[in-house]
Automatic annotation (TrEMBL):
<feature type="modified residue" description="4-aspartylphosphate">
    <location>
        <position position="53"/>
    </location>
</feature>
<dbReference type="Pfam" id="PF00072">
    <property type="entry name" value="Response_reg"/>
</dbReference>
<dbReference type="InterPro" id="IPR011006">
    <property type="entry name" value="CheY-like_superfamily"/>
</dbReference>
<keyword id="KW-0597">Phosphoprotein</keyword>
<feature type="domain" description="Response regulatory">
    <location>
        <begin position="3"/>
        <end position="113"/>
    </location>
</feature>
<dbReference type="InterPro" id="IPR050595">
    <property type="entry name" value="Bact_response_regulator"/>
</dbReference>
<dbReference type="InterPro" id="IPR001789">
    <property type="entry name" value="Sig_transdc_resp-reg_receiver"/>
</dbReference>
<dbReference type="GO" id="GO:0000160">
    <property type="term" value="P:phosphorelay signal transduction system"/>
</dbReference>
<protein>
    <recommendedName>
        <fullName>Response regulatory domain-containing protein</fullName>
    </recommendedName>
</protein>
Amino acid sequence: MALVLLVEDEWLIAQDHAAVLRNAGHQVAGPFRDSDTALAEISAAPPDLALLDVRLDHHTSIPVATELKEQEIPFAFVTGLEGADIPDQFDDVPLLAKPVGPEHLLDVIARLRDDPSRRRSGQSSGT
C-alpha cells in the first residue's frame, strides 16, 4: 500500500479522507492544514502519492503541487470550487470535486499508484 500525503484544511473532510485511506490499508501523512507544514513533511519523508485541497484558508496548495511535480510524486487536487484557479502546468493532474465518496477516492489513489506515467523513476507499483 502507499504512503499518502493529505493536505486539507477542513477538519471533517480531512478526518474522513484519512479514515478511508487507512481503512484501505494506506498510511497517511497528515492531514496538513497548510503548505509550509506539508512541504516540510515532503522534505522529511517523501510520500508515494498525495491528495491536495486547492484552497487552504487564505492560501493555496500550489507550492506543494509544484514540489510534488518536481519530485515526480503523483497527486490529485480535491476542491469544492468549480473552475478553481489551478495553473496550466497542472492540466494533467486529476481534479476531484468535493464531496468525494470513498469509492471514488480509492479509485483515484489506485490509478495514481498504478499509472507508470505518474510515478517517480524507480518507484514500483507495489508500493
